[in-house]
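Hi R.,

As promised, here are both runs. First protein below:
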Amino acid sequence: MLKPYSSLSLSLHIKYVPMPSFHSTKNTMAKFFMNYFSFFFFLYRLVFKPSKNPKAFHRTASNIHANEGKLYHKYPSFAHRANLSKDQTLLLFNVEDALLKSPSLFPYFMLVAFEAGGLLRAFVLILSYPLLRLVGEDMGLKIMVFVCFFGVKTKSFRVGSAVLPKFFLEDVAVETLEVLKKGGKKVGFSNVPRVMIESFLRDYLDIDFVVGREVKVFRGYFLGVMEDKKQSNAALETIIGSQGLGICDVIGISGFKGSLQYHLSSHCKEIYLVRKADKRSWQRIRRDEYLKPLIFHDGRLAFMPTPLATLAMFMWLPFGITLSIIRAISGILLPYRLSIPILAYTGFQLSLSPNPSLQSSNTRKTRGRLYVCNHKTLLDPLYLSFSLQKDLTAVTYSLSRVSELLAPIKTVRLARDRDQDSKMMEKMLNKGDLVVCPEGTTCREPYLLRFSPLFAEMSDDIVPVAMDSHVSMFYGTTAGGLKCLDPLFFIMNPRPSYNVRVLDGVYGLSSFLGGGERSRFEVANHVQSEIGKALGFGCTRLTRRDKYLILAGNEGIVNKC
């Protein structure tokens, strides 16, 4: 018989647990979120406050004046100083804070990544840009150096001497340049790698000493890691100690971030501080204000690669490659009456200024006409042929095999032997019109190189042609890269343009009494000066050899591709 529950020996002990109420749950969640957000804002203040509010870590101008007396001054007051002795003054300046107007170093590292490392390395750098904005300035600099330099050969690195000077010069402030002219010996120091700034400062601004951080090297390759700041500071200390003897005034110019370093405050008699507001009012120098003219520079990018501009370039690349293929097929396969409208429809601008006197005198002749033009890109003879709508034969000094095969007009390679080349040109002129670029190489800037006088001996019917081209994204010339890609990069631009101006004809060597070497050069110099006047370009005596020695370190060897 079953016993009732009350009589069982096993008893159940039930503990009552009250259910949480709505108000207690709300209080618990509120405490959790308060603790979470408190920790979050603590991290935010720890990470972001140094970059957002530099006053917490750097003394302001008022504090500096209050604590240091008359040692520190605001930068604008330096411009009014006229009592500087060039023999008794040592001027120290920070490159990024006191010389360049741009507040960001990212575009210069993008140039290094693209030109020295290629498209993939540049893509990695633009992808890392959000991270660069989150971390501090020093850590961001280390990341950019690693991405741009890791694995790059030291012997082949010429971006610092061939590419960066152009962009640095375009960013120099007029106010700082005037200050540098007042000082005696000048020392430029920077936190960026020395290989990026040394050539620019020494060759174009006549800076006596350059101090920058060294990038570590292993077996001929950059490791992407910079030496410690102490080594560059020690080098600056050594320069100040050796050059400061017998000099009355040692003056420093820097920003607030680097103005209180020991090597400045312990040696400089005065330190002038540059504020961000000062830099915003600065003006960039014009080309005619350069201390030395910029004639040669290399690299593919024709724009300052800011983050937004670089992003636009990567977005354009798929369209640009497709558009370049359409333009190339149109120019190579189609006749002039079809290819010219198609090129214009795709955004290519081609303008021609013909010479009516030459057209009226275009009578039947047994020999062809010799067109002599300055050299902007490898496409000069092609667009002259498009403009005149006639077949021409182009004489080339150095052209890749791929470009020769794809050229829609006939090309003849010269051997750089005077007797052999003159016979070849004589033969071509007997067959038809000939076009030659006596500079022997391209020049991007508004200057003309020395004209080789060989063409003056070939014909008495010489027609000078002034050529000029403009691009917005990629240069269609290179000295250290693959020349077979030059036409592709040029037609990859969104709206490339070519201006062709046919000038009055000139007589050849036979028109000069006596002939000889002097007359030969007189004809070449006369043609050069006429083209220079038409374009507003300066005439120089520089040659192809000078260009390649400066940009590529060789005498003009063409990369085969």
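And here is the second one, sequence first, then its structure tokens:
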Amino acid sequence: MAHTLGLTQPANIELPKISFAAKEIDVAEWKGDLLAVGVSEKDMTKDENSKFQNPILKKLDGLLGGLLAEASFEEDFTGKAGQSLVHRLPGLGSKRVGLFGLGQSASSPAAFHGLGEAVAAAAKTAQASGVAVILASSECPSAMSKGNTAAAIVSGTVLGLYEDNRYKSESKKPQLKSLDILGLGTGPEIEKKIKYAEVVSCAIIFGRELVNSPANVLTPAALAAEASKIASLYSDVLSANILTEEQCRELKLGSYLGVAAASANPPHFIHLCYKPPSGPVKTKLALVGKGLTFDSGGYNIKTGPGCSIETMKADMGGSAAVFGAAKALGQIKPSGVEVHFIVASCENMISGKGMRPGDIVTASNGKTIEVNNTDAEGRLTLADALVYACNQGVEKIVDLATLTGACVVALGPSIAGVFTPNDDLAKELFQASEASGEKFWRMPLEESYWESMKSGVADMVNTGGRQGGAINAALFLKQFVDEKVKWMHIDMAGPVLNDKKHVATGFGISTLVEWVLKNSSS
């Protein structure tokens, strides 16, 4: 293994193996460490004698001698989202009973995902190895099947339990070994949904670990190696092609190579391709991710308060989403769809051979770009990646990038901006996001703003004025997409990191997987 700056290497920590199962068992008979009950505010309604009216809560409270109702009253537990109440009470097969608030009514994947996360936190605190989850109201919202509800709970539990301790000298292993989901049915359909949730959750963890890895560990070469590992693991459906700097020069990827020029770490242009194990291919898609493993800003160096240079290891969040999706799809193996995963990976650094403000670079489609700001580098790498994607003969492209601070100002830290001239493609993405629970908002592609992107000496500049910065960036990318290809740009600069916990979120992976599956014949 190559030495890194600071001699840092991540510890090889295996993910905890949890056995998930859907069961039909009476709550009074279930035996384990924690019985977690998901309750809405409506479920917490009590009669004039302060007794629960909900059948499941009424039954549990009866077995516990009224202590559950008492505890909920004393601790002002009303079922609001985020509330929880966990007590060790005698009278059941479970050591502990917990109530977990779902809000006024649980009607989205996000609500049940949140339930899973809360249960995981409680299981950690109680050092529980066996947990069961049941909903007080077993009737699922009309928009969600029982299988999807179970999947959201499983996903929340896996991700809630996970902590990235690879760079810590000491870490505790979670004790959770099994989680039973009660009251949502049994059988192959719900088991399939649970398995799907496990696969996608593990892919999200993979994506989080890529983004969390510091730039002295995750260089462009290391990112290429991680992508190649995915292709090797699922070689029946995935192949990898890593282009060297010389090969990129032969393909005339001048815009990308201009950004990469200053770094001591050479660029790696990464192309994975998914082909179904059997049957004809009906649709060809491309997922393109921004892969800046570190962004100093170049000669327009990031300085001053709010520049966030210390978080710029996360500037490859788009590539993490793309490779996370590849990892999941390599296991799911959808039919009828070919998917190209494309990342032009490099660092944006400063040196005597680096790109200067005012330089003109030439992209692989022949268009020339006057670099008026070296810190608007992501779009320069994406320009060549998008041209390359179009050359693969794809019908639809989705690119993801931590592209602009302007998008974070507009939409805040948890919503990604969506830019596309194609209404049908937008509809597909938002349908996928409804299933994943991730938040997106469609933004305008205002063509009149392109005036600010015109250069006196080249075809365009790489950044316009401060106003409408995220729109200008999307309009720039549009110049490198074939008009026959349906294209969407996702600016995920906000949701790539969890600001409170200072760690990666794995944003985009579950939505991309859903989108690919909606385009497949599976």
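A quick note on the second one: The chain is about 35% helix and 20% strand. Let me know what you think.

Best,
J.
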